[in-house]
From TrEMBL:
Belongs to the small heat shock protein (HSP20) family. Residues 34-147 form the SHSP domain. It comes from the Bacteria. It comes from Calidifontibacillus erzurumensis. Residues 38-143 form the CS domain. This is Hsp20/alpha crystallin family protein. The lineage of its organism: Bacteria, Bacillati, Bacillota, Bacilli, Bacillales. It holds the Pfam family HSP20.
Amino acid sequence: MSLIPYEPFRHLENMRREFDRFFVDDFPALRTAFGPSLNMPRIDVYETDTEVIATCDLPGLEKKEDVNIDIDNQMLTISGNVNRHQEIKEENMHRKERFFGRFQRTVSLPSRVNAENVKATYRNGVLEIRMPKLQHEQRKRIDVQFH
């Protein structure tokens, strides 16, 4: 008799996949109501000694006016609009998974950054934002003059 490892959550994983398929494939209109995270761009945020770097997947942007970047109180907000110009009749559509429309994503930053010197580049569907960290003020000893 062979031993089969017990996986207590295997059935839950199958159920999760079925729910995902249900909302994405069968009822795409419910995506925005019940799954707004499906329309949010994916983002990575990491830091080095001198800067905080955010990379965000945003395929389909055509011009720089399609994306806005705001930094306020250690919060980074990326918003914009992805347009799809290809007209396809609904009855000819077999599968519709690609996102288009308005998006917005706000994440907290791990360090305070200098918003004046932020550089953003968009290449091959990936937006990279480089934010220099604010330099901590150096402690300075003040000599007291006695008279």
